[in-house]
Design goal:
With 322 residues, the chain is of the alpha+beta class. The protein contains nine helices and 14 strands.
């Protein structure tokens, strides 16, 4: 018997006797009682009365695998989920799993104590407030396509948020989502492969969902945003994650089978970067200019005093031009 099956049976909010549940699950009534107690310890509110049975009253705001999987309409993404209350980093755990797990495996954590963004920056991942996840992909692409996969993840997340909340975050090339000048989400893509092929990709996504302004550390409070701050109400993390996995799977296989043109066009139409003065740091090199285009390779074109420079990878910061 799995906890998910028991939750599914109780989800009708009707009383079901221990005998009925035991028969449906193929276990003893004592096993049913034990699992009900386990669910209660995990935050489920379940009432019980003699001769009536058990009834589910409420679910916790947790990204338990069976909750995310309920109604999930994907073929691969999210069909295998590893869930943790806390991890140092979902990307690190996904790296440990990628050789043995199928494509589409998701690692979820309610909290990360060592979550990272680009260039090793710390990603603030408090418990129960955001979506902190990593997805294992096995795309069999040239490594030069890595930046495009990051854009696929960003576009799918922007679209999923719009579908669910009628709010469309803008894509800051190459891996962030912004709303009204504040950072809402970051994506960290890491790869493993040999002989010029991307054999496995870890797609790490951090999305601020239900933080209030005071929840953010003082040093990022003026730069960070959450969906709660935009909508001024709690957002259902399970429903949003479920829809994101559906949109991401569609966009991913569309890109693999038919090319990245649709993703790149979305990035151009809903860009937080184009038309702005930026400073680019690429290794030891730093230069500034105006972001004027995203080309067919997913590269960012910078106009520097009339000369165009193409950026494939690097740290891009918006700057004020005096």
């Amino acid at each position: 018997m799995t906890l998910g099956r028991l939750v599914g049976l109780l989800a009708g909010h009707q009383f079901l006797s221990g005998q009925e549940l035991a028969a449906k699950l193929g276990v003893t009534r004592a096993a049913v009682w034990k699992q009900v107690e386990t669910l209660r310890s995990m935050g489920y509110e379940i009432e019980a009365y003699p001769r009536q049975g058990y009834r589910l009253l409420s679910r916790p705001d947790k990204l338990y695998p069976w909750e995310v999987a309920q109604g999930l309409e994907t073929r691969f993404f999210g069909r295998t989920i590893e869930y943790y209350d806390e991890l140092p980093s979902t990307n690190q755990r996904a790296k440990e799993l990628m050789a043995s797990c199928p494509e589409g495996t998701v690692v979820l954590a309610e909290s990360q104590i060592a979550g990272r963004g680009r260039l090793g920056r710390k990603w603030f991942s408090p418990p129960g407030t955001g979506i902190w996840m990593s997805l294992i992909l096995k795309p069999q692409l040239p490594p030069t396509q890595l930046s495009k996969l990051t854009l696929v993840a960003a576009v799918a997340l922007s679209q999923a948020i719009y579908d669910q909340l009628n709010v469309r975050p803008l894509v800051k090339w190459p891996n962030d989502l912004y709303w009204n000048g504040r950072k809402l989400s970051g994506i960290l893509t890491e790869l493993a492969g040999e002989m010029g092929r991307l054999e496995s990709v870890i797609l790490g996504v951090g999305l601020n969902v239900n933080q209030k302004p005071a929840d953010f550390p003082a040093e990022i409070r003026e730069q960070a945003a959450s969906l709660w701050m935009i909508k001024e109400r709690p957002v259902d993390r399970k429903a949003l994650l479920r829809h994101y996995l559906e949109v991401l799977e569609t966009e991913y296989f569309q890109a693999l089978n038919n090319g990245f043109d649709g993703v790149l066009e979305y990035c151009r139409q809903y860009s937080y970067t184009l038309g702005r003065h930026v400073t680019v740091t690429n290794g030891a090199q730093t230069f500034s200019g105006t972001a004027v285009a995203i080309d067919g390779d997913g590269g960012l074109i910078i106009d520097q005093d009339g000369q165009h420079r193409k950026v494939i990878a690097g740290d891009v910061n918006l700057t004020n031009q005096n």
